Amino acid sequence: MNRLIMYTLPLIFTVLSFNSCDKKGGEPVVSQAQNDTVAVNNPKIVFVDIDTLLSKYNLYIDKKADLENQSKVAEKSLAGKIEAFQKRAAKFQNEVMEIQQKANTIAPVELKKLEEKFAAQQQNLAKEEEALMKQRENSAMDFEKKLLETQKDLQEKLDLYLAKVAEQKGYEFVLMKGSGGSVMFGKNSLDITIETVDELNKEYESQKSETSNK
To answer: pLDDT 10s digit of each residue in the chain, 214 long?
Structure first.
């Protein structure tokens, strides 16, 4: 009888010890596997692939197409002016060469008048060329300015959305993957790019609809 009690007590003690390890203050201890499941379902750190986002974000696509069209129109207009200038410059050079070839047959007084005329034309052509180059430079600067404004607008919209969704879902960090990003690898479960671009597109379509109804 005594031997039975001696074998039974350690067994009971072992079971009690296991149960006490599972509980702290009446609360069950969460296992590592459970922690991992919570981390997957409720991640604190997520990322957005900026290249994918820009390729699917309708606002960016529309803005980019609009800027490209404006640039093409400006380039076409400037190209026409440059072509016309080049024709006038070529004509001027031909006239100068013709006068030089028959300079010996022209009276000194008349030759001097022609030289003064050509000097004035050359000066006007130089000013026109400078103005065209300035116009090209201004056009490039204007395009760059509009591009920066577009990027700033996109960044503000993305920041506002991410701040809102981070508050809703408890994200502590939203990292960027892709061009200029700091993420080299991220699990697919942490990639919120598609849901982000879907929500941004819904917001953009709503704004377009409101604007068209005004």
So the answer is: 444 333 333 332 333 333 334 444 444 444 444 444 444 567 899 999 999 999 999 999 999 999 999 989 989 999 999 999 999 999 999 999 999 998 888 888 998 999 999 999 999 999 999 999 999 999 889 989 998 998 899 999 999 999 999 999 999 999 999 988 888 898 999 999 999 999 999 999 998 887 777 6
What CA–CA distance (Å, rounded) separates 123 from 97? 17
pTM for the predicted model, two decimal places: 0.64
In the chain, where are the structural domains located? 2-213
Strands (E) located in 43-108: 45-49
